[in-house]
Amino acid sequence: MRLRVGSAAAASAAVLLLAAGCVDGGEAPADNSGLSGTGAGADCVIEAPVKVGLVISITGGAAFIGGYQQQGLELAFDELNAQRGVEYQVLLEDDKTSPEEGVAHYAKLIDSEKVSVIAGPTLSTVAFAAFPDAQEAGVPAIGMSTTAEGIPDLGDYIFRDSLSERVALGASIPAAVEALDLKRVAILYDGVDEFTSSAYRTMKEALEGLGIDVVGEEEFATTDTSFTEQLNRVKAAEPDAVVLSALLGATIPLVKQARELGLTAPIIGGNAFNSPVMVDELGPAAEGLIVAGAWSSALQSEGNEQFVANFTQRYGRPPDQFAAQAYTAAHLIDVAVRADCDASREAIKDNLGQILEQETVLGTLSIDENGEVYQDPVVQIVRNGVLVPLES
Ligand code: 1QQ
Questions:
Q1: Interstrand relation of 158-160 and 50-56 (parallel, antiparallel or unpaired)
Q2: Interatomic CA distance for residues 311 and 67, integer angstroms
């Protein structure tokens, strides 16, 4: 199945044709009728197709993530639709990396498509706009890359399988301090974006908590493209390392300019750094960059080796963290549906909040009734242009 953006009709037709496990291939019901089935778990059989909305950044500044998410979701729903009993009708929408677009597509999926559950959007900034509408409508929504502070607090219909930036930074900063014997650090941060501002606060707390001397704090705006002034002040402070909270748009020019200005200190970064697209674009400037995240191709987690092999074989490139989190979100939706063999919004909401020590390609993962995810972070460093586990 190729996940195509937009028109529901095309999508449902494609899914129906391919879903070997489907029962009668009919249209999804407007209400919950036909969404509660017989049996449970692997023996669960639900008559009606289960409509799943996907809202990701296929275009715009976060497309570097959305492209991997689309492929991770496609691979997962193909696997799920090859299983017996439950047929997923997947409706993919492009949030164009814009809160307004995110809200509009959410409204369409909730009100006209009447989906049972929605995965996405890609950025926390878009999620802060769209998730409240899902909460108000009583539609369960799961973030797959939304790591900002406060996302699960948006309501009891809001969940995420994307490790919070707070937990990730709580792992990467101490690991970097130990591995690099850091004493003096400077912080550079985008003070405009919701995600980067909350990450900056987390970074500062973590550093002060470790007794690290913060010798410089320099703010910039999401849309800035020149950082010379801030970088020269940081350079003059002679930090042992720089901690950077930025989205991709600013990250590339900022890190390249830092290296051009002779600022060679190691950089510790936020979630955007878990993208191989970013590492490739930075080239030599990325060497030694440290980041914590939720996944690594080296993880000895359940099904990870097969996931990496299947993804690479199908898409001609290895997956990244964002593909792995999207792939996992689809499988978690299936776990929630098959738990009571009920694909109604309420049943999915109840069961997404009771995911306990589920084995996934991300490792052992739990999601609590507040919608927060719990799993071990993975701290990585860029070596020869590739993210590899940071050995202490
Ligand atoms: C968020 C993020 C982005 C930087 C990457 C997806 O983590 O918006 O929460």
A1: unpaired
A2: 13
Q: Which atom of ligand 1 is nearest to the CA of 196?
A: 4
Question: Rounded to the nearest whole angstrom, what is the distance from the C-alpha of residue 82 to the centroid of ligand 1?
Answer: 31
- Nearest-CA residue for atom 5 of ligand 1: 272
Q: The domain at 166-293 falls in which architecture?
A: 3-Layer(aba) Sandwich (3.40)
Q: Which of ligand 1's atoms lies nearest the C-alpha of 248?
A: 4
CA of 355 to the centre of ligand 1 (A): 23
From CA 137, how far away is CA 133, in angstroms rounded? Answer: 6
The ligand 1 site (C-beta within 6 Å) comprises 65, 122-124, 145-148, 195, 247, 271-272
Look up tokens 């878990």; give the residue.
274
What distance, in Å, lies between the first and last C-alpha atoms of the chain?
43
- Topology of the domain covering 41-163+300-376: Rossmann fold (3.40.50)
Joined together, the tokens standing for residue 207 give 């550093």
C-alpha 47: how far from chain center: 31
Please write the tens of the pLDDT for every residue from 54-102.
Answer: 999 999 999 999 999 999 999 999 999 999 999 999 999 999 999 999 9
On the question of a common fold for 41-163+300-376 and 166-293, the answer reads: yes
Could you tell me the pLDDT band of residue 195, with boundaries at 50, 70 and 90?
confident
Burial class of residue 289 (count of CB atoms within 10 Å of its CB; 0-12, 13-18, 19+): buried
Q: For 175-186, how does the pLDDT look when each residue is reduced to its tens digit (9 = 90+)?
A: 999 999 999 999
pTM of the model: 0.92
Over 90: is that where the pLDDT of 168 sits? yes
The full set of domain ranges for the chain reads 41-163+300-376, 166-293
Helix (H, G, I), strand (E, B) or coil at 269: strand
d(CA 387, CA 20): 38
Structure-token pair, residue 146 = 């939304």
Distance 280 CA to ligand 1 centre (A): 18
**349 secondary structure, DSSP code:** H
